[in-house]
Amino acid sequence: MNVQTDGAAARPLGVLAALPEELGDLIATMRAESGVATRTLGRRDYHVGTVHGAPCVVTLARVGKVAAAATASALIHAFDVHAIVFTGVAGGVGPDVRIGDVVVGDTLLQHDMNASPFFPCFEVPLLGRAQFDADRALAAALADACERFLADDGAALSARFHTAAPRVHRGLVISGDQFVASAQAVGALRALLPDALAVEMEGAAIAQVCHEYDVPCAVVRTISDTADEHASASFASFLNELAGTYSTGILKRFLSEYAGASAAR
Ligand code: SAH
To answer: Is 257 a catalytic residue?
Structure first.
């Protein structure tokens, strides 16, 4: 099913998260704005409609690289999306990255990929690269939406949750099929990948699929934990209390701007 095929500008944007909390109010807003057409494929529900003026297909990947890659592939082939944006939470890895900060991926890498001695550590075999770039314009627009969200709501969020004033970071996001939850594990990642800002379980898989099909993508992650012994508790409370607030605030600003820019094309 192709949603709209009358011109590139009308092709929808794929919006993806792993867990329902990470989508914020997106599906409810779509329902109110345009109505939602839902199609089930591969045990996932794809919600098609318009959100904040932008034609979108919104779905949940579930957790991990295989789930994320399969969902990205379906968005590209069954829904003809022209770009994919992932929103969710992650563990902070960079020294200045704190809970409540936001990280926008400029590049993404699979930290558990290692086919050495046949290929260098982290390189995806037969693809000749370890790092996958986010689309520059999409990443810049997302970072801008994050800055505007934190300028508007950051002080209230930090007062309410006793966190430091939240900031936006841009750089390397690393992905693997592990929930990283010990000082030893996050320390090992820091030693191997000193530029890494955040660790999660989906982003680099989506970036690989998007690279293979020449589809622009971008990943935005709010820091729910610091990938250490406190990670499980911190992740769970952040997911329940704040993940939706961040996604709602960021996506509202991003999609409104994005729809305006698409209309101007
Ligand atoms: N029990 C959870 C499992 C979530 S796994 C559930 O409700 O299903 C953690 C999710 O958050 C993944 O999607 C991952 O991308 C992200 N994440 C947050 N903190 C992480 C960390 N410290 N290590 C790896 N992934 C993390």
So the answer is: no
